[in-house]
Specification:
260 residues; mainly alpha; Glycerol uptake facilitator protein
């Protein structure tokens, strides 16, 4: 059997995980930002609402990584992460293609599922399908910010997930970074780190402003971080492409965790 035939459950899980992430992003954005929302009316401070959004999405990320699907697929939920692990030799080409395609499809399904439920609430300018866009500082600053937050995330993932002692904390580290980025960095670039996530919202909103940033800066940032890790610690220190290995679910990657 081909990898595609054998590994389709993992591809489907990846798509479903990003779809659920987008459902959460659109739902929380609607609750916190739509003018008619009681929560929005009770919280006039934009900084406080962004903090709550960060905490909600950080918790969502942790829950998805630690879920049974996340433990089996590796919970990349991001083409940038998948392509970086492909560059590191931990994912076969067919699997990387299957993951990326599923992530894009899952993100789109998640956004349009919320659109069916919430209708014009999600399309309201204050919510705008939770689309990512550069802030007032401009495109170049947004590009640099996306590059840096993506590089930092990849560095943390590689350092923590490849340590037997610290590996169980990988989901929590990822969630903490997501929460922090949304709270502090979102006004600069919209906080994406994820081409599939940004494309799903852009298609829903039909907003293509500077979309190229979210297709280039995140993968470049993660690839540079991975190259730095390999040069400092060696490729042999990269054990697997899963974010959570504390389980007995099958692993479809070129996994060295059992030999560590």
């Amino acid at each position: 059997m081909t990898a595609t035939a054998r590994h389709w459950p993992e591809y489907a899980m990846e798509g479903a995980l990003l779809g659920l992430f987008m459902v959460a992003a659109c739902a929380f954005a609607s609750a916190l930002e739509h003018p008619g929302s009681p929560l929005r009316q009770a919280l006039p401070d934009a900084n406080l609402r962004r903090l709550l959004m960060g905490l909600a999405m950080g918790a969502t990320a942790v829950a998805l990584v630690r879920s049974p699907w996340g433990q089996q697929s590796g919970a990349h939920m991001n083409p940038s992460l998948t392509l970086t692990y492909f560059r590191l030799g931990k994912i076969r080409g067919a699997d990387a293609l299957g993951y990326v395609a599923s992530q894009f499809l899952g993100g789109l399904v998640g956004v349009f599922a919320v659109r069916l439920v919430l209708g014009m609430v999600l399309a309201h300018p204050s919510v705008h399908f939770a689309a990512t866009a550069p802030g007032p500082s401009g495109i170049l600053v947004a590009f640099a910010a996306e590059f840096m937050i993506s590089a930092l995330l990849m560095t943390v993932v590689l350092v923590v997930s490849n340590s037997r002692r610290w590996m169980p904390y990988t989901p929590w580290c990822c969630g903490a970074l997501v929460a922090t980025y949304i709270t502090l960095e979102a006004p600069i670039s919209g906080m994406s780190m994820n081409p599939a996530r940004s494309f799903a919202s852009a298609l829903g909103a039909w907003q293509w402003t500077a979309l190229w940033i979210y297709f280039t800066a995140p993968p470049l940032g993660m690839l540079v971080a991975a190259e730095g890790y390999v040069r400092l610690r060696g490729a042999h220190r990269i054990l697997c492409a899963k974010l959570d290995h504390a389980n007995t679910r099958r692993c479809i990657f070129r996994c060295g965790w059992g030999r560590a």
